[in-house]
Design goal:
With 201 residues, this protein is mostly helical. It has 8 helices and 5 strands; from the N terminus they run ββαβββααααααα. The strands form 2 sheets. The chain has a 3-stranded mixed beta sheet with strand order 3-5-4. The chain has a two-stranded antiparallel ribbon with strand order 1-2. Helix 3 crosses helix 5 and helix 4 packs antiparallel against helix 8. This is Peptidase M48 domain-containing protein.
Amino acid sequence: MFACNSNSTSEVILPENEDLPLTKEEEIIRIYNESVLPLFKEYSEAEIPTQFKVDKNDLGINAGAAFGYVEVSQGLVNLTKEDIQLFALTHEVAHIVTISQARLFDLQGSIPKGTVTNDYKKAEYLADLIAIHLIKTKLSKEFNLLTSNFPFLQKLLGAATFTHPSGVDRINYLNTYIENALVTSNDVAFKNSFLRIWQMD
């Protein structure tokens, strides 16, 4: 490695074949661009976010998506489990395509409120389902790693709140889809799970 210094700049010249390692932020952006975005190419009518923002002040494991951008916490960027990062990012984009997916199943309107399970919690279950289905059907290696990390994911998802089901309940729903896919097919299990969540009391 040779370094050339001048008064105004410091430049490092690397051999042509040597790759610089990506920063953690560059790595999660790579996961989003190379793994997450292709999962949603069939949802052509949805506006899938292409911009990526990092909240450097949030050291928790958080993410959110809006039309146009995805925002993640520094805590998610720092996480060393790429499969969990993949799931979190896919889950957030899945929120954006939930109604598009519902229309594909001939469901109209917005997510209905149940008497026991409110529409916020249903939205989380549905985004989880879309995410796991896309990962299972298109990224089998990552899916296998992710399922082996379900105990970690369950802890990460934590206790129930008004808007989010507990990690235990969410992982149970994911496992139900996976088990049903074994006895039917991925697509049949996906549709049945989607309809069941949509119609929950």
